[in-house]
Amino acid sequence: MAAQPEPDIVLYDLACTKHVSFSPVVWRIRLMLNYKNIPYRTVFLEFPDIEPTLKNLGLVAGEASKYTVPAIQHVPTNTYIMDSLPIAQFLESTYPNPPVPLTSDLGREIETKARGVLGKAMYSSVMPREVRILSPRSQEYFRRTREAALGHRIEDLLDGDREERVWDGVSDAMGAIGELMRTNKADGPFVLGAWPSYADFFIVGSLQSIRVIDEGVFQRMIKCPGYGGIYEACLPYLGRND
């Protein structure tokens, strides 16, 4: 049998016990790769292995940043890039067809509002469940780093009615963001209308991450008008998840 050709991209992703992609920031890039049909292979890394692996590849974290996935190797040029936005910019310039608009006024508004609102819901509902799909090594790292900032156990975020209070507090804002997502619904199912943009991959990457971690939280999210429609429109680009 002939050897398979080397893919254009090596994608460094976050490992979990389900053996599929679940990081929302990596999914933004995976969706872009799938949509553009760029050949790639995945290297899954445990949390404690991310920094040493990326350092060994020669990547340098900025002063305000840290070593994180996604990271890619562009095999034809032996170029290494870290962080989702620089990677997206590189992919768009190197593989311009089909195009993925990276910025728009509507997309920026959705992303800015979603980071604040959905961030709260994911922090309270998703993070304490995420630990359940990690290996023992990654669980130890995850707990140590998150609980040091929290000052208590991750699971305490789910105690009593704490989680429900967070959802109640973001309900109206989630609805408003969902309406923004539907601004161009007359032209198509995506944020900008007929074709996906990076804003769609930002939204769907978060939703897919939630779905892998906990189906119940995912179902809760897509009941809000706007979210489910964009997720369904991006289903063709969610098929490759490993």
Structure description:
This is GST N-terminal domain-containing protein. InterPro entries: Glutathione-S-Trfase_C_sf, Glutathione_S-Trfase_N, GST_UstS-like_C, Thioredoxin-like_sf. With about 240 residues, the chain is α+β, with helices and mostly antiparallel strands. It has 2 domains: about 10-95, Glutaredoxin, CATH 3.40.30; about 105-235, Glutathione S-transferase Yfyf (Class Pi), Chain A, domain 2 (Up-down Bundle), CATH 1.20.1050.10. The chain is about 50% helix and about 10% strand. It has helices at about 25-35, 50-55, 85-95, 105-130, 135-150, 160-180, 200-215, 215-220, 225-235; strands spanning about 10-15, 40-45, 70-75, 80. Strands 2-1-3-4 form a 4-stranded mixed sheet, with helices on both faces. Helix 4 (about 105-130) runs antiparallel to helix 6 (about 160-180) and helix 4 packs parallel to helix 7. The two termini are about 25 Å apart. The mean pLDDT is about 95.
How many domains comprise the coordinates?
Answer: 2
Helix fraction bin: 40-55%
In the CATH hierarchy, the third-tier topology of the largest domain is known as Glutathione S-transferase Yfyf (Class Pi), Chain A, domain 2
The number of helices is: 9
Query: Roughly how many Å apart are the termini?
Result: 23 Å
**N-to-C series of helices and strands:** EHEHEEHHHHHHH
Global geometry: globular
Spans of 5+ residues with little confidence (pLDDT < 50)?
A: none
Rg from alpha-carbon coordinates: 18 Å
Structural class: alpha+beta
